[in-house]
Amino acid sequence: MDLFLSTELLELRSAVRDFFSEIGSRSTVLNTVPSSCDASSLAGMLSAEAVETVWNGLARDGFLAAPVPKNLGGGGLGVLAAQVLVEACGRELSPLPVFETVAFGILPLMLLGSAEAQRGLF
After folding, report:
1. Which of 44, 47, 83, 112 is most deeply buried (CB count within 10 A of its CB)?
2. Buried b (16+ CB within 10 A) or exposed e, 72-84
3. How many CB atoms lie within 10 A of CB 117?
């Protein structure tokens, strides 16, 4: 079993990091949120507009669809793409529910959902 990331997954990781770098999310979070803040209140400290901008950007650029098979409108990169996406978002201190959306929404529908449910993904 090859435990190294493919070229496509490395490119995905780089693209997600570039996306967050362009919007300055890590510095925004670090400069906005007090050091004593816990994760559950982090998203509430950022403006709804900022959260919406980031979330829409992740969707627009295809990052949320990266693990989804191409025949369902996704990037076709498989389950490891979910890990790459979640890791990259966590690295940038993103308070968005990326893990929850991918791990408990997209992947279960992709793996266990009916054909009708899968067609509604993207």
Report:
1. 83
2. bebbebbeebbbb
3. 12
